[in-house]
Give the backbone structure.
Amino acid sequence: MNHFLKSVVYTGIIVIGSHFPGYVAWADEMTSAEAKPRVITVTSGGAGGSLVLGGTVVPEKIVNLTAQMPGDVDFVAGSEGDAFKQGQALIALDTQSLRAKREQAVSQLASAEAAYRNSLVQYEHELRNPNSQANSMLGGAPSLFGMFSDPARSMMGQGNPGLERHSNLYGQGVQIETARNSVDQARAALRELDESLENAVSYAPFDGVILKRMVEQGDIVQPGMPLVSFADITRLQIRVEVPTRLLKVIKAGGTIQAKLDGAAQPVNVVVDRIFPMADAGGHTTTAKFDLPQAIEAHSGMYAEIILPDPDSRKSALPVIPESAIVWRGSMPAVFQVADNGSLKLRLIRIDELPANGVVHVISGIKVGDNILANPASNTRASQ
């Protein structure tokens, strides 16, 4: 098996053998190195091949935190790989000037509220004491001037107690409304400053680690600038661009084989999500596959997804069980069984990685040949 994994690896898309129900049982029967050698007849694939798609291991949850306001970076919590709990501060901007403005806003709000309360008191006083402002000039005593001026004012339509009272109350109402508006404006200014203070700190949205830090202490940032990439690496996925013609062979919740870079054996992954929009240029669609949590993997590493390809042209190639292959150095070979029972060692050319325990053979043997399905380690060709 180790030799087999040294076979040719292509960049991009690799076509290999895949699902052949008639041959899957071979691997199950070859459970013991001491099993009696068995002769099988080579047949063609028939059911099509598979497509190996290169992808990348990514976290299931990843966010890029950006600056929400301009300012100087005052605090950086950690570096790449450091873990944080949800709600812990990751990046903080300098808020000294904001806090000074907030103190001023608090003072302005207090003054506006005091003016509003005073206007209410004046209005209430006017309701209880009509013409209080006129009477207060002489302590409430009638003036000599008023004895002669009141009749003249009445003749001109002035001095009407009802009209004056209405005018005074209206003026007090305007003052109340103005004071109320001032309070609302002061409160809005204070809320805006509080929001700015909150936006000055970027918090961990969930338990995770810093994948990449884009700023250092003392840097000047503007709204929208990236600060840190943060992710939950306890759940990993493989992100792959799948040709649109193969979307029919995968569906959410289905199981597909995958192979991680450096791993000896493939693993089963679950189709998590198939993005609805295809790339118009490459005619591919992004798909994500959930890795088992017990699998050792790292974000950013290379991985491959093995998808069934019913349109593969390799259905006519000879197919043999992986257990039939013996290695002579770096060259794969099989033991061909002649009609008289003698064995001949045939070097073969195989097609990339095995899939489901079977291998496509490009050259060296043909359909109809008899070979040993499970040669023992001491098997030798006939003299």
